[in-house]
Amino acid sequence: ATCAELYVILSSLSGLPLKQNIAVTGSMDQKGDVQPIGGVNEKIEGFFELCKMRGLDGAQGVIIPRKNVHNLMLKKEVVDAVREGKFSIFPIERVEEGMEIFTGKAMGQMQEDGTFHEDTVNHLVMKRLVEITESFRDKKDIDKDKEEENSK
Fold first, then answer.
1. Rounded CA gap, 123 and 135, in Å?
2. Are strands 88-92 and 27-28 parallel, antiparallel or unpaired?
3. Three-state secondary-structure class, residue 142
């Protein structure tokens, strides 16, 4: 669940919407490595059934930990749908890979000057964090000015 929680936080900070036709399962460690989970087959098959009821359109899929790939023993119907391009399974090792799948944007690597390329998730997140920080500084300055005036 930590992967899903992080994706929602990054979506909120960046302003980027997350695709609603992709499910995610998995936890991550403190370094962003995606950890294996239990019940991977049941989770994939459950979401597949929901998608099938709504109509498979080829855009639906599930993000899973790459470390669970060797555990996959899916129903033939799911395997066939994947083979035919009607459903996708996205195995990932790092949490950034999932965010890229959900948004269609690169996460972005930090450049030598500490910034990120403009068309990346990390650039949008950092931009918003700077805005939040500056708004707190502005509020602090306003509060300080009020205190100084009141003490006169």
1. 18
2. unpaired
3. helix
Give the whole-angstrom CA distance, residue 139 versus residue 26: 39
* Residue 122: Cβ within 10 Å count: 20
DSSP calls for 76-135: HHHHHHHHTTSSEEEEESBHHHHHHHHHSS---PPPTTS---TTSHHHHHHHHHHHHHHH
Give tens-digit pLDDT for 94-126. Answer: 999 999 999 999 999 999 999 999 999 999 999
Round the average pLDDT of the chain to a whole number and report it.
93
Q: What angle do CA 32, 35, 36 make, to 5 degrees?
A: 160
**What angle in degrees, to the nearest 10, is found between the helix axes of 2-14 and 95-103?**
50
Give the phi and the psi of residue 71 in degrees, each rounded to 5: -90, -10
Please give the model's pTM, rounded to 2 decimal places: 0.86
